Amino acid sequence: MRIYPDEDISDLLYGELKIIQKKKGWRYSVDALLLADFVLETIQPKDKILDLGCGAGVISLILARRSPARKIIGVEIQKALAGRAQRNVRLNHLEKKITILHRDARKLPQVFPQKSFDLIVSNPPFRKVGSGYLSPEKERAIARYELKLKMPQLIQLAEYLLKPNGRLALVYPIERLKELLTELEKSHLKPSRLRLAYHKKGETRPVLFCLEARRKSLGLLIQPPWYIETEKGRFHLDRDR
Question: What angle do CA 157, 163, 167 make, to 5 degrees?
């Protein structure tokens, strides 16, 4: 397995998985762990899963290792990140469950027919261009800012690719919740589950949220919150679920 001089190998889930990352540049953060935790309980063996903007493959790796799903497809627009994700799949011997595609997500309707997926997950670019500091480091900038994929495009794509009983699961900063609900309504997708993440206990304003949406209204289930920083350390799937 080739590791480049500007990369290292980090533990994921306390060494249950390994992940190749750049020493400086895009590195996974707690939002990916929260989204993986959010969807794990819902996954069935028959589910075909699409990980949009998979980065180095963190969410795909966790779902492949921890869920019964047989097929996960990760899509990443950045060539270097897609290549890193492919190497991470091989590093963790998950080639039979995960396929990584180097593609522009906006062109996926040319690759997959309508209503192809049971579950679509995405830890998308969080920030609108102009809403804060744009990193000069290209990989980090594209991963964090809507330079290549904007929220309306993401929702429209998900609506096209979701099966009739499929579900979409997203993680975003709390300030984009109202905007997301508006975009979901435009695409006739209904929020079905919501879970908030606070920096720590005692704080009154959440920092992140995960939201699940479906074609059919089931009512909105609001689940107990996460706390990112705890007395035992930073959030971990096996301790803070």
Answer: 75
CATH of the domain spanning 7-234, picked from 2.60.370.10, 3.30.360.10, 1.10.10.60, 3.40.50.150? 3.40.50.150
pLDDT digits (tens, 9 = 90+) for 63-110: 999 999 999 999 999 999 999 999 999 999 999 999 999 999 999 999
134's CB contacts (< 8 A; 6+ apart) are 141, 145
- pTM of the predicted structure, to 2 decimals: 0.91
Summarize the confidence of residues 182-204 as an average pLDDT.
96
Residues 6+ apart with CB under 8 A from 65: 13, 16, 17, 92, 94
Residue labelled with tokens 């929260």: 34
Helix axes 30-40, 58-66, angle to 10 degrees: 30
What is the rounded distance in angstroms from the CA atom of residue 168 to the CA atom of residue 214?
6
Query: What pLDDT is recorded for position 140?
Result: 52
* Residue 147 confidence (pLDDT): 53
d(CA 79, CA 192): 34
